[in-house]
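Appendix B. One record, verbatim.
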Amino acid sequence: MANTNIKRVRTSDLELKDRLVAINRVTKVTKGGRTFTFSAIVVVGNENGVVGYGLGKASEVTVAISKGVEDAKKNLVKIPVLNGTIPHKQEMRFGGSEVMIRPAAPGTGIIAGGAMRAVLESVGIKNVLAKSKGSSNPHNLVKATIGALCELRDARSVAQLRGISLTKVFNG
């Protein structure tokens, strides 16, 4: 995600909620038999425009989840949310996963599946239409969804970037 719009956020004064997206059991065959470890991908957010994801690996599920939460808290970004939806349509690819998110009217709800739903709920988006194409790998879906959300820009940031007034952005 080589993006100049990413706004990093400090965790000190945030009330973060974590959501478990996926757990994988990984088997390593050694001379002494099979060794099982667990990999957990976790999304954290304050449901008010801040979200992050993390990956934790450990020999026990609970330890892997807590490591994932700690990793997610290190990767928080600020997302523009306008009236419970996103400012504009956005598409993003990561690996074999491709996601498309569109703003929706109030009352629509979150129309998304699996890993995308967890990310969008953690951000605090209430109404959005989302579609995932290609691979359904939860790791790539989470990264593509957060990448698409990081590309979003609200009218205020566009006006500031162009050096013009907010009304001139809408009137041309």
